[in-house]
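Final report, closing paragraph on structural work. Over the funding period we assembled a curated collection of sequence-structure pairs, and we close with a single example.
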Amino acid sequence: MALKKTKTPVKAAKRAVRTIKVTPKSTTKYVYFFGNGKAEGKSGLKELLGGKGAGLAEMTNLGIPVPPGFTISTTACVEYTRRRRKYPPGLWDAVLKYMTRLEKTMQKVSPNIGFGNSSNPLLVSVRSGARASMPGMMDTVLNLGLNDQTVQGLIKKTDNERFGYDAYRRFIAMFSTIVMGMKREVFEECLRAKKISLRCTHDIDLDACALRELINEFKVLVHRHTDHDFPQDPIDQLRMGINAVFESWNGDRAIAYRRIYKIPDAWGTAVNVMAMVFGNMGDDSGTGVVFTRSPSSGEATLFGEFLSNAQGEDVVAGVRTPQPITKLEATIPAAYKALTKIHRKLERHYRDMLDLEFTVQEGQLYMLQTRIGKRTGIAAVKIAVDMVKERLITKEEAVLRVEPEHIEQYLYPVFDPSTEARYTKQGKGLPAGPGAAAGKIALTPEQAITMKAAGDRVILVRMETSPDDIHGMSASSGFLTARGGMTSHAAVVARQMGKVCIAGCEAVEVNGDSSVRIGSVTLNRGDFISINGFDGSVYCGDISVMASEVVQVIQGTLKPEQSERYQYFLKVLQWADTFRALDVRANADVPDQAVVARGFGAQGIGLCRTEHMFFAEDRVEIMRDMIMARTAADRMKHLDNLLPLQKQDFIGLYKRMDGYPVTIRLFDPPLHEFLPKREDLMVKIAKAELTGKDSDGLAETKRILARVEELHEFNPMLGLRGCRLGILMPEITRMQVRAIIEAACEVTKEGGKIFPEIMVPLIGIWGEMRAQKRVIQEVASQVMAEYHRVIPYQVGTMIELPRATIMAGEIAEEAEFFSFGTNDLTQTTFGFSRDDAAKIIDFYMTIHDHCPRCQAMDIDQKTMLCRACGFQITERLDNILTGDPFTTLDQRGVGELIQIAIERGRATRPDLKLGICGEHGGDPSSVEFCHRAGLAYVSCSPYRVPVARLAAAQAAINHGISSAARQASLPRRQMRTGKKRGKTATRSRQ
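Its predicted structure, as stored:
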């Protein structure tokens, strides 16, 4: 039904009251206005107004040209969801009130303008805006308020028939897709057919007559697919648009995005309703996105793109490849001058690199959004360092601005130049995400997921990506798109995910879901392709990669002064080192790993797994002979052969860690790991018996099988390993301790400074620690006497069993340090096997709402209706796990056990040294926990050392306490067991 000329939101509200339940007024403020240089909100209200709403309010208060409007708070969205798609009391009345206020504001520049006014219509956009940036994951509607009557008023007002019909056909397609649930492809196909019939290449080539025909065809499609006419009442359109934005918070792609980036479901999204400005009114109009600095390299220059005669979504959607922002200076110089002035003002105000959206309407610039810009790791570090030099931010702020993932990107591989030169470049696009990637072509998100699950490296190739592709993008190593620019959806997501991306490669032509043409070559799904995200080059084939500049410097193949990137990388980490309280060590088993660890700034070795040294070719046979031996004397003969080899390994580690501690874990795994597999031996025996060949070898194989059978355990992870093996076969411990101390004596003889820490694994009982320590001390004393040297060594244990954490007070009577082995401690606390638990954990990390009526798990996340039987679900299930406990430390369970061990251990031995040596030592959240818990160090793999250094600094800055103050502030629980050191000697121990 068409509206009368004079109908306004107030009058429409009277009609609306008859169709909705009247609710009591609420004192909660849900709506916040901005316009005319004043706003009810500000940048600090991001949690309430969302990032977009807070940015619009702040720009308005700064006097920057922003179309007026209002923001519906995130609180309203949360309430809407909680009330099962019903508005909280007072919200709709407030929306109508603020629409009237928006009309009055607009009437100051355009008399008689009104929402639904058929002679001078006010059109609005309805846009989402969560507190965390979620580019493209939720919905936006532009040109809302158009219908068959208001479009004529728009044409008459602007004297531009083509513009009016173009706006209306865009609105019908967008509204029907987002609000009414139709497929976007339905309208795209209709538009494509129209262009083909008229021999047009681009949308802008269609004249007013063609657009008017398209509108009629679109309305027919709407009725055919929905059984409803396209809504003509602007007030109904507004309500439906707001609902759609609210509901997009629980859309599949938004949920998937939140899972990837760990954004809480409870946050909700704000809704921004603002007066439309139009970039599609002619050649003096347009729309664009700019960054105040390059999001790829960090260079301090205005960077972005502009599309003339287009609307805002055209840029990020990638439907046309935009022009560089410098083209705006040539076409609309006044708008470009205003934009450069505004971007400098905003960057100085926010003191960060910003992402700005703008529209130029008939030469007048309007700002539509400002937010902190997504950036690559390369750019993040450069921007942070440069802004310190420019005195915009402090060093502390610079360290906090760089995310741990940004540091990792400095280690990304690049193509080997000599290999790359042998390949023919098939295309070139825009380098939107740095790095080098090679993989098999996937042409749909579903293909990417399947190929990734099969273990393949995947490159997702699309004409352009959309938010619906997020699952496939997450599974891919890189993206290649035919359309779109440096600010397109693919580019933004690549920078956020830290993946390689080339956008706008016009040589790419995707043919359905089976093949793609790149230049002159046609490739099929599953063929290899290589993309260079540094220069935008595309190659057919699988190009080998090489180390990044930073890694080359660490490896000694590139001089530090030859790499500017290394200099920026080094500067941020040097600043981080001045703030952190935690030491950062590395897990390293061989000298080469120790070299890398020191190059990345490790302050010692936190875990040397000695058993890894025995898997070398020249040692594994000796090790097997030792295992096959039946007596301790026979075992010693073979261990004597291993002794000089292991000693040389320790000498290499000591020399490369001169002056830093080296924590050496004694032999840990079950012995059967060094023997052939039982099944393989049985097959070998069966074949030999069938053929009658190799009778001598057959006897030996049977002897090995017999020993394997003897050593077989149903649960070897909790079997004869660690200290238990050292107690039953003390000769193994003796050989290793002799190698450790002899190596230390020889290196100190040459002037080296050595601090070995001997760590006994799998301790759970005080007596185990005592027994192994006696052996260690006895052998160490013998060796030092032989060499006439004193080595300042320590003996400690790896805490990896729940009982060890509970009995830490007793164990600390013998142990001089604790190193928490969080990998096994997580296994034994959860009862998960790390090698088998992936499927369980993945399942637990996903919301699995099920229908109580039919038990189906096919639930529509927007409506909470069971798709199988139509039942309305009234209660949502939360994830069983919010994260993988083998990746990020479980602070409530495993972390609580660690806290108990710390407190009980220190109650016995106040100077007890504490560290962590599981892979959690390189996880930022886990590092933050270690800082709060009062540990002395974390230890992780060598390539995670830079991440741990940064994470430790950020933890110290965020908690604002020094190492000494942190120790003093540790909580002290009432001890239920364990007493002070030296007072438990008479108590029985188990």
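Confidence is low (pLDDT under 50) at residues 1-23, 962-988. The longest helix spans residues 632-656. We thank the funder for supporting this effort.
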